[in-house]
Automatic annotation (TrEMBL):
Organism of provenance: Pseudomonas koreensis
Protein name, per record: Sensor protein
A GO molecular function held by the record: phosphorelay sensor kinase activity
InterPro entries reported in the protein's UniProt record: CusS-like_sensor, CztS_silS_copS, HAMP_dom, HATPase_C_sf, HATPase_dom, His_kinase_dom, HisK_dim/P_dom, HisK_dim/P_sf
Chain ranges of the Histidine kinase domain: 235-449
Length: 449
């Protein structure tokens, strides 16, 4: 079955609510009218009862029927029956009075042969136990017809109100849901070439403004991700183009004529270096892809960061000595983490620091044990990084050095991206600060992760 639209659901809901309210109001009005008629009939019969008692008091037996007829003639729809204390019928003012009437005192409604009566039983002499009984009958058929017509009118009003409300509700719902249709139209028009489309938040009603804001934010994230993906694909092609071209050219030149075995060996060694760099690039890209899908699962082992840092500093010591750079480390802390992954992250930071530190400069590794986290920072002296470049340092294939070399066999611009993935896999954060001739990369790792 086809599901109802939101506009149809709202219209039906409006119609149902209106029908229920109208029906409830009609029933209350009908009950109030019926109670009002009962009260009027009670007052009328009570007044007639007093008049009849007065008319029959101190009257000669031969004049009673004349006095009763005179009293009853003033009310055409009123009839009277008088019965003795033994139940014998003494007097009927009309031949149409029903034979069986209720005997209980008070006001009772009776319906016989298509006629409705309000019946009131009362003693002729209230202070006597053997008093004859007066039974007053008031024809209320016209009252009942009025109540029936009113009930029919109520049902007709309920139906018409529900229909009118359904139509008006459908129009109101369709008008009110126009912003949603606008959102749907924008969503249908979104493609890889039109991710810059946005909903006008200022024109949205308050109930949809937050949804429009979230929708625009989602489009912004998709646009940013798509731009990054496009740039990533272009960077991959850019990085692989030069080594592939070198391999192809070198191999073609080598095969142009017969050469000594040593020339072939030298060509193979040269090609091997390019292939190793390409293999490392592919491995790094696969590593980042695993990180994007949450597949990096660090091992948990107790590590002394000071010892791990000293191992890395010892490894980079010859390079630092050749460059005239001083290496130092201060502080210590223990943490649970993956030894190989954390070593790789710190190694990338130390390698970057050594490359951008001028001669006679220094690289410092600091470890600070905080109450809820461990902070590890790698800082180096030298030219700083402008503030507008800091947010892009962890992008893939991004190099802050403007003298970018195509297809460099040493650095492809993935080191910081890999470092960030490792830190995030450990539940931490990394940031870069650059000021006053120092550039600092700060890693914060939570304890107990």
């Amino acid at each position: 079955m086809r599901r109802l639209s939101l506009s149809s659901r709202l219209a039906l809901l409006f119609a149902a609510c209106t029908a229920v309210v109208s029906l409830f109001a009609g029933v209350l009005f009908s009950r109030a009218s019926e109670a009002h008629f009962v009260e009027l009939d009670q007052q009328l019969l009570d007044g007639k009862l007093i008049g009849l008692r007065r008319a029959l008091q101190d009257v000669q037996p031969g004049q009673r029927e004349a006095r009763l007829a005179d009293e009853l003639s003033r009310q055409a729809d009123l009839a009277l029956r008088i019965t003795g204390s033994d139940g014998q019928r003494w007097y009927d003012s009309s031949t149409q009075i029903p034979t069986d009437l209720p005997k209980q005192s008070g006001l009772v409604t009776v319906s016989q042969t298509g006629t409705d009566y309000r019946v009131l039983n009362a003693p002729l002499y209230p202070d006597k136990t053997d008093s004859p009984q007066l039974t007053l009958l008031l024809d209320i058929t016209h009252h009942q017809h009025f109540l029936q017509r009113m009930q029919h009118l109520i049902w007709l009003t309920v139906g018409l109100s529900a229909l009118a409300t359904a139509l008006l509700g459908a129009w109101a719902a369709r008008s009110g849901l126009r912003p949603l249709r606008r959102m749907s139209a924008v969503a249908r028009g979104i493609s890889a070439q039109s991710l810059n489309a946005r909903l006008p938040e200022a024109q949205m009603p308050p109930e949809l403004a937050e949804m429009a804001h979230s929708f625009n934010a989602m489009l912004g994230r998709l646009d940013d991700s798509f731009q990054r993906l496009s740039a990533f694909s272009a960077d991959i092609a850019h990085e692989l183009r030069t080594p592939l071209s070198n391999l192809l050219t070198h191999t073609q030149v080598t095969l142009t004529r017969p050469r000594p075995i040593e020339d072939y060996r030298e060509a193979l060694h040269s090609n091997l270096e390019e292939l190793q760099w390409m293999a490392q690039l592919v491995n790094d890209m696969l590593y980042l892809a695993k990180a994007d899908h949450g597949l990096l699962m660090p091992k948990r082992e107790a590590l002394e960061l000071a010892d791990e840092s000293d191992v890395l500093l010892e490894f980079f010591a010859p390079l630092a000595e050749d460059a005239g750079v001083t290496l130092s480390r201060e502080g210590h802390a223990r943490i649970e983490g993956d030894r190989s992954m954390l070593r790789r992250a710190l190694s990338n930071l130390l390698d970057n620091a050594l490359r951008f530190t001028p001669a006679a400069g220094s690289v410092r590794l600091s470890i600070v044990d905080q109450p809820h986290a461990v902070q590890v920072s790698v800082e180096n002296s030298g030219d700083g990084i402008s503030a507008d470049l800091l947010p892009r340092l962890f992008d893939r294939f991004y190099r802050a050095d403007p003298a970018r070399q195509e297809g460099s066999s040493e650095h492809a611009g993935l080191g910081l991206a890999i470092t960030q993935s490792i830190v995030r896999a450990h539940g931490g954060q990394i940031r870069c600060e650059s000021a006053a001739g120092w550039t600092r990369f700060v890693i914060e790792l939570p304890k107990g992760q």
